[in-house]
Amino acid sequence: MSPDPIPGRAADPRFLDCESSAPEAVPHRAVAVIGIPAATPYRSGRAHSASAPAAIRRASAAQVAKLAHYDFDLGGPLLPAGGRLVDCGDLAFDPDDLPRNRARIAATYATLLARGAAPLLLGGDDSVQIPALGAFAARGEITILQVDAHIDWRDEVEGERFGLSSTMRRACELDGVRTIVQVGARGTGSARPSDVAEARAAGAQLIDMGILRAKGMAPAIAAVPPGRPVVVCFDVDGFDPSVVPGVLGRTPGGLAYGDVVTLLNGVAERAPIIGFNIVEFVPEADIDGLGTRTVCRLAMLGAGLLARSAAR
Ligand SMILES: [Mn+2]
């Protein structure tokens, strides 16, 4: 099986009206936006976040005029001096060939990383991250910082091992993944007691919402080993549903946007952020554009942090 050589289509509009680029032409150290609508939906499910990349890009249009302005979440303009941002468009998704979807993502990430790019993934459901993380881990040791209401440690669901509830379990099996820090778990999700026990036994550091309520973001930041490159795996259901209502299941008691700014800036001070994945946004379930605007801001924060790490 050979993956498609090109992405599905160029983005229109492009994220923050940046220049368009094929993955194989991305400039060295550029932040490369890549939309991935879906990869491995469950048989009982659907590609529920497929419209998210376009929704985030559309929301970014309102931010373009202020791109060079001071961003107080980043302590400067979005892009540092010399920073580049390009949009690689969206990968194709074939609901009838899930292995090919994963191969396409893996090949695209291998190309982006070989060029020295810093990928900003606009998903897509959580399953799109699995092949992307494989590409990162194949190149060197990484830390995964997951923000999510759920720990995603199921070995399989409906017989599918590469679906959205298995992302951290599959990541743990990659040689290059040395540390997994999981932030924001709360309520109930796909995890059964055995899944939580196996996550802990495998060394995953579960910084759940109870810990964060008691101690703030400091324990999550401190759990990230200094120096080793970090890939951020951000399921937007980590936010409280009053912040981002557009998710598959609204679980109360989540993170505020400001918590996330504190967390990610704290992590970026400790280690370079080399990849930033935003998944599980469901624009159709948003309320009055509230969450769309916030997820767009998250993507901007991710772009700014990636660009700062790439510039070092
Ligand atoms: Mn989740």
From TrEMBL:
Transmembrane domains' residue ranges: none
- What terms describe the molecular function in GO for this protein? agmatinase activity; metal ion binding
Q: Which SUPFAM superfamilies match?
A: Arginase/deacetylase
Q: Which Pfam families match?
A: Arginase
InterPro entries (alphabetical):
Ureohydrolase, Ureohydrolase_dom_sf
- PROSITE patterns hit by this protein: ARGINASE_2
> Where are the coiled-coil regions?
none
Keyword annotations for this protein, in alphabetical order, are: Hydrolase, Metal-binding
Keyword 4Fe-4S on entry: no
- Top-level taxon in the UniProt lineage: Bacteria
What are the BP-aspect GO terms?
putrescine biosynthetic process from arginine, via agmatine
The similarity comment for this entry is: Belongs to the arginase family.
> What protein name applies here?
Agmatinase
**Lineage, please?**
Bacteria, Pseudomonadati, Pseudomonadota, Alphaproteobacteria, Hyphomicrobiales
